[in-house]
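Q: Predict the bound structure with magnesium ion.
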Amino acid sequence: MEFKKVQKECVRNMIRYGKEFDICIDKDYALLKLYEEVGEFTQSILIHRKKSRPEKFLPEEESKKEVAKELADVVGFALLNAELLDIDLVKALEEKGWFNGDGSL
Ligand SMILES: [Mg+2]
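A: Predicted complex:
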């Protein structure tokens, strides 16, 4: 799926979530949730690397899935922030040097 379509779909799902739970999905919410998810991602990494309390340890594959889920949340909220701030993330990534738009490395 094209990047912009992924972004639109993520935002559409977030708006649906907001309506379901009566949450105002605005710029403040998007920013605060991004920080929350970065924290959850960090926690999942600590658990995955067994740098947390032992009772939180999970089997390797399970903890890696948790890391992936939390990283997906970070990306999802980054996409929501981009949408609400009217930022073309593909353009921003290219301008920041994350990739070349012509497909070359
Ligand atoms: Mg999460």
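A: The chain has one domain: 3-90.
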